[in-house]
TrEMBL record:
<dbReference type="Pfam" id="PF08241">
    <property type="entry name" value="Methyltransf_11"/>
</dbReference>
<feature type="domain" description="Methyltransferase type 11">
    <location>
        <begin position="162"/>
        <end position="205"/>
    </location>
</feature>
<dbReference type="GO" id="GO:0008757">
    <property type="term" value="F:S-adenosylmethionine-dependent methyltransferase activity"/>
</dbReference>
<protein>
    <recommendedName>
        <fullName>Methyltransferase type 11 domain-containing protein</fullName>
    </recommendedName>
</protein>
<dbReference type="InterPro" id="IPR029063">
    <property type="entry name" value="SAM-dependent_MTases_sf"/>
</dbReference>
<dbReference type="InterPro" id="IPR013216">
    <property type="entry name" value="Methyltransf_11"/>
</dbReference>
């Protein structure tokens, strides 16, 4: 069930983004696998769901990237329970966050409508830039209510239901910071991101090598750094309608130039967080358009 909370003092009543009390895509109770991924749905259910869905705008999933084992988590308890207590912490170091904010400064259009997917009490957006509206999504309402950049937010477990109650082609940008490793149905979530983006809109995904180990999916948890980048690239590529994803890597030396860090890096003992981002745009050309 979607829970919508309008934070004071800036409730947002945009007609463009209309939360629905009824989820459009129902997947609960169907084919729950060993690890309670809770997302497999039958063809019949998919057909019913798509009747409500904007087929023309939806990102089509060309293929599945993950197998059932890859979607499993060590901790199979509901994610809502794991995130029930707010964590007012930063999940990566300042060097990483400086890189991320700079990337947002370069790629997010000022004045645009932005969705911060899997957000918390911070969005890492450049302070001096004003956006039209920033919508936040996450699992902990207290964290989201504290986030000064959000005009509006909603709470939703994307491992239970992936559809975003946001209008198709309504956003200029979607960002998702240091969270993709927790998605058990990334293909469906990325398809939704494509759907809500305007043509030319940008999706910026970022991650490092940290994670809540027990809550990360096996395919991510058990992979290498190189493998995780490849996996994230495939999440984009499996959706018809994104441009070729651009991979941005910054070693810790890039954002932490202290002598201590340089020496530690040379010794292979750097403790700074490496920065990875994948950037792709919603293609202007409609996927599957037969000429
Ligand atoms: C490491 S935190 C990162 C938060 C934020 N993006 C940041 O940069 O500080 C991971 C976030 O993923 C979100 N998350 C984890 N599992 C989720 C799920 N099943 N559905 C929706 N969001 C989830 C939580 O809201 C949590 O805040």
């Amino acid at each position: 069930m979607l829970r919508v909370i309008l934070p004071n003092p800036r409730p947002w009543l945009s007609p463009k983004i209309t939360p629905s009390p009824q989820p459009l895509l129902r997947i609960d109770g169907i084919a729950v696998r060993c690890c309670s991924t809770g997302g497999e749905y039958s063809g019949q259910t998919a057909q019913n769901a798509s009747a409500h869905h904007d087929e023309q705008a939806a990102g089509r999933i060309g293929r599945r990237v993950l197998n059932p084992e890859g979607r499993c988590k060590l901790d199979t308890s509901p994610d809502r329970d794991f995130y029930s207590l707010p964590r007012f912490v930063k999940h990566v170091d300042e060097g990483f966050l400086a890189e991320l904010t700079e990337l947002y400064r370069e790629r997010l259009p000022a004045g645009g409508e932005v969705l911060d997917l899997m957000s918390s009490w911070v969005s890492h957006l450049p302070e001096e830039v004003e956006y039209g509206r920033v919508v936040g999504h996450g699992l902990n309402a207290q964290e989201l209510a504290r986030n000064p950049r959000l005009d509006y937010f909603f709470v939703k477990d994307l491992n239970r239901e992936q559809q975003l109650q946001l209008e198709s082609r309504s956003l200029d940008a979607v960002v998702c910071a240091v969270s993709v490793q927790y998605l058990q149905w990334p293909e469906k979530v990325f398809a939704e991101v494509l759907r809500v983006l305007k043509p030319g809109g940008v999706f910026i995904l970022s991650f490092s090598d940290r994670m809540f180990y027990q809550k990360a999916i096996a395919a991510w948890r058990d992979s290498t750094t190189y493998g995780r980048v490849q996996l994230a690239v495939q999440y984009f590529q499996c959706i018809e309608g994104f441009t070729q994803p651009e991979v941005i890597r910054r070693s810790p030396q890039h954002h932490n130039k202290s002598i201590l860090n340089t020496v530690m890096s040379l010794l292979g003992l750097s403790r700074s967080d490496p920065f990875y981002a994948i950037v792709a745009y919603r293609n202007f050309k409609q996927a599957n358009l037969k000429l």
